[in-house]
C-alpha cells in the first residue's frame, strides 16, 4: 500500500512539473501590447496613397533600485504604466506592419485593442480596406470601438490626458459612458460596422472626436454613404438623429422659457417604425415613446397632475419640431438615409431590387408621432 502511494505521488509530481514548464507565462512587459490603432493617409501628387498606421502601446515601468526592474517567479511588480507610439508607413495597410516591427524589439500581442481611430481624411477616402483587413484577421479584437477624428489619428493618440496612461483609455471610457446622454448607441465595433456595410438599406455612423479647448471631446457623429464619410453632424443634430435612428436610447431634454425658467427631463426613448408604399412612393411613420424623470425644475412652482400634463404636451411639440427640422435637412441637404429606414422598406417590399434607398427615403413621406410621459418629478413626488 505504501509503495502504491509513493508511485502516485511521484506521478503527480512528474505531471505537475511537465505542465508547469509548458504553461510558463511570458511577462507582459516582454510584449508590445496595443491599446489603440490609428489610420492616417497621405495623398501624393501622382494619385497614389501612403498609409500611416500609428500603434499606441503600453509601456510598463518596473520597480527596482537604480532603474533596474524586479521580476520574481510569481509576479512582475509594476510601478508605472505609460504609453508609446510605434508607426508604420507603406503603400498598403498590411505592409505597414513590416516597417513597424523593424522599429521594435518585442513581438506584438494583438487582440486587446480598445480603440481604432480613423482620420477624417482617411474616412472620406474610404474605410472598406480597413474593415476587410481587420475582419479577416482573427487576432484583431472585433469588439474594439471605432471612431473618426478631426486631423490626424496620430495627434489624438499622442495627446496626453492627465490621469490616464494613454489617450485611448480616456476615449474608451468617454464613448462607452456617452450612452447615458445624447441618445448615443453602443454599437460602434468592428462587428457592427461589418454588418452595417453589408446590409441593404443601412448607412454607417461613427463617433467623431476632436481636440478642443486642450481636451479630447466627443464633438458629433460622422455620417457615411457606403464606406465613405460624407458629413460630420454636430452634437445637437447628432442627438436628434440618434433619437430617430436607434431602437432605444437615453438622454436629457430641456424646456426653457427664460434664463431662470426651465425644466430638464431625463428620459429613455423607444422607437417603432412602420412602412407603407402607395403609388410607388414610400411612407414611414416613426413613433417615439419617451419615459423619464424631471431632474430640475424652475419653470413651475409645483408640478401637480395638471402641470405634468402641460409639460408632456409642450415637450412633445418641441421634440416633434426638432425631429421635423432634422428630417427636412436630411432629405434636402444630406440626401442620405441617416435613420436606416430603407432597411424596413427592403425587408417588407423585397431586397436586392436595385433600389437606391438614399434616394427613395429622401423622397419619402416621413411622419413622426411623439409620446412623452413623466415617471417621477423629484424626491417625495411620485
Walk me through what this model shows:
The protein is α/β, with parallel strands linked by helices. It has two domains: 27-234, no CATH class; 247-382, Nutrient germinant receptor protein C, domain 3 (GMP Synthetase, Chain A, domain 3), CATH 3.30.300. It has helices at residues 2-22, 96-102, 120-125, 128-136, 153-158, 167-177, 190-197, 235-245, 305-334, 341-349, 357-362; strands at residues 34-43, 49-62, 78-90, 115-119, 145-149, 205-212, 215-225, 228-234, 248-258, 261-278, 281-297, 365-374. The protein has an eight-stranded mixed beta sheet with strand order 3-2-1-4-5-6-7-8. Strands 9-10-11-12 form a four-stranded mixed beta sheet. Helix 4 (128-136) crosses helix 7 (190-197). The protein is globular, with a radius of gyration of 27 Å. Mean pLDDT is 87; it is low at 64-74.
Task: Please render the helix and strand layout as text.
Layout: H1 2-22, E1 34-43, E2 49-62, E3 78-90, H2 96-102, E4 115-119, H3 120-125, H4 128-136, E5 145-149, H5 153-158, H6 167-177, H7 190-197, E6 205-212, E7 215-225, E8 228-234, H8 235-245, E9 248-258, E10 261-278, E11 281-297, H9 305-334, H10 341-349, H11 357-362, E12 365-374
Parallel strand pairs: 1-4, 4-5, 5-6, 11-12
Antiparallel strand pairs: 1-2, 2-3, 6-7, 7-8, 9-10, 10-11
Amino acid at each position: 500500500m505504501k509503495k502504491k502511494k509513493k508511485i502516485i505521488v511521484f506521478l503527480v509530481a512528474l505531471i505537475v512539473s511537465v505542465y508547469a514548464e509548458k504553461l510558463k507565462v511570458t511577462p507582459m512587459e516582454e510584449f508590445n501590447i496595443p491599446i489603440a490603432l490609428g489610420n492616417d493617409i497621405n495623398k501624393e501628387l501622382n494619385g497614389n496613397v501612403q498609409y500611416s498606421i500609428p500603434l499606441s502601446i503600453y509601456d510598463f515601468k518596473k520597480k527596482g533600485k537604480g532603474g533596474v526592474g524586479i521580476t520574481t517567479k510569481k509576479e512582475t511588480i509594476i510601478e508605472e504604466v505609460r504609453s508609446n507610439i510605434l508607426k508604420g508607413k507603406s503603400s498598403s495597410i498590411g505592409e505597414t506592419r513590416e516597417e513597424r516591427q523593424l522599429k521594435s524589439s518585442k513581438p506584438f500581442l494583438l487582440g486587446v485593442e480598445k480603440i481604432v481611430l480613423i482620420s477624417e481624411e482617411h474616412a472620406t477616402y474610404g474605410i472598406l480596406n480597413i474593415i476587410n483587413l481587420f475582419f479577416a484577421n482573427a487576432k484583431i479584437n472585433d469588439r474594439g470601438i471605432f471612431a473618426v477624428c478631426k486631423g490626424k489619428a496620430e495627434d489624438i493618440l499622442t495627446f496626453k490626458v492627465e490621469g490616464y496612461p494613454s489617450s485611448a483609455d480616456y476615449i474608451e471610457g468617454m464613448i462607452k459612458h456617452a450612452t447615458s446622454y445624447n441618445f448615443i448607441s453602443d454599437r460602434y465595433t468592428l462587428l457592427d460596422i461589418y454588418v452595417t456595410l453589408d446590409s441593404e438599406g443601412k448607412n454607417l455612423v461613427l463617433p467623431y472626436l476632436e481636440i478642443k479647448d486642450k481636451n479630447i471631446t466627443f464633438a458629433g457623429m460622422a455620417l457615411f454613404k457606403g464606406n465613405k464619410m460624407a458629413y460630420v453632424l454636430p452634437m445637437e443634430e447628432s442627438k436628434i438623429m440618434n433619437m430617430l435612428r436607434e431602437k432605444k436610447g437615453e438622454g436629457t431634454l430641456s424646456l426653457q422659457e427664460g434664463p431662470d425658467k426651465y425644466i430638464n427631463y431625463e428620459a429613455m426613448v423607444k422607437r417603432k417604425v412602420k412602412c407603407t408604399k402607395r403609388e410607388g412612393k414610400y411612407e414611414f411613420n416613426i413613433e417615439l415613446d419617451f419615459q423619464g424623470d424631471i431632474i430640475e425644475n424652475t419653470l413651475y412652482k409645483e408640478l401637480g397632475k395638471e402641470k405634468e400634463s402641460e409639460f408632456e404636451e409642450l415637450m412633445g411639440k418641441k421634440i416633434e419640431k426638432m425631429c421635423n427640422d432634422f428630417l427636412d435637412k436630411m432629405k434636402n441637404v444630406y440626401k442620405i438615409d441617416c435613420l436606416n429606414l430603407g432597411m424596413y422598406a427592403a425587408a417588407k417590399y423585397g431586397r436586392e431590387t436595385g433600389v437606391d434607398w438614399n434616394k427613395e427615403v429622401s423622397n419619402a413621406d416621413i411622419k413622426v408621432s411623439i409620446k412623452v410621459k413623466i415617471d417621477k418629478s423629484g424626491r417625495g413626488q411620485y
